[in-house]
């Protein structure tokens, strides 16, 4: 009986190995699993029109993939600005409309004001950044920064070495005040929301620009 049982067991194992042999993975290798390839999202008509606007302004940029980060934070229809004609620091993801208006403001608002009021070219715009998953200061509501739809402007560096900061210059000498008031007024024509040190203490050291809301809030 023992011999017969062993023979039956051997025949059973041989049959199973024969049936499964084609699915065995050699030792030291990992079976590859094919994953479906997701097609790249097609830009919306609004995004394509905005990309064309940036190109018409000779702005160098790279479209960014849509991303969500949890907590309601996201970067959708955003771009990375590479060259707007004036170097700018800390530029992360920006919605295309924000990027287009920022580039136009820097070129047609800031630079002419610096030439006429301060007598020098702007060589760098310093910012506190763009995307930041955080609420509005003192509020539970998400900031437009959490949607890559806002930028904070801290200072302007001139070709002659002068640095005009919002914090020091807002109540500075006559020319500095005039320059900052002028670029602030120019921003109010391009962004939906513009906040300055006159708005509240949280903005004592920067301008806040965003494309949220219905527009027309300038302080």
TrEMBL record:
Transmembrane annotation, as ranges: none
Organism: Sphingobium xenophagum
Cited Pfam families: Extensin-like_C (PF06904)
Domain Extensin-like C-terminal span(s) in chain numbering: 49-219
InterPro entries hit by this protein: Extensin-like_C
Keywords from the UniProt entry: Signal
Signal peptide residues on this chain, from the entry's feature table: 1-21
Name of protein: Extensin-like C-terminal domain-containing protein
């Amino acid at each position: 009986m023992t011999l017969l049982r062993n023979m039956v067991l051997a025949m059973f194992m041989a049959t199973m190995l024969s049936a499964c042999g084609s699915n065995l993975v050699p030792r030291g290798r990992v079976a590859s699993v094919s994953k479906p390839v997701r097609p790249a999202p097609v830009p919306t008509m609004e995004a394509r029109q905005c990309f064309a606007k940036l190109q018409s302004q000779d702005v160098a940029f790279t479209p960014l993939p849509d991303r969500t980060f949890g907590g309601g934070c996201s970067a959708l229809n955003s771009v990375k600005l590479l060259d707007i004609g004036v170097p700018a620091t800390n530029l992360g993801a920006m919605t295309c409309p924000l990027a287009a208006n920022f580039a136009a403001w820097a070129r047609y608002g800031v630079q002419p004001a610096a030439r006429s009021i301060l007598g020098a070219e702007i060589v760098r715009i310093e910012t506190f950044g763009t995307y930041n998953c955080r609420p509005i200061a003192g509020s539970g509501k998400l900031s437009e920064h959490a949607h890559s739809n806002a930028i904070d402007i801290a200072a302007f560096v001139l070709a002659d070495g002068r640095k005009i900061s919002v914090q020091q210059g807002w109540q500075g000498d006559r020319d500095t005040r005039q320059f900052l008031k002028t670029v602030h007024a120019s921003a109010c024509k391009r962004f939906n929301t513009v906040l300055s040190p006159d708005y509240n203490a949280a903005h004592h050291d920067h301008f806040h620009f965003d494309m949220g809301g219905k527009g027309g809030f300038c302080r």
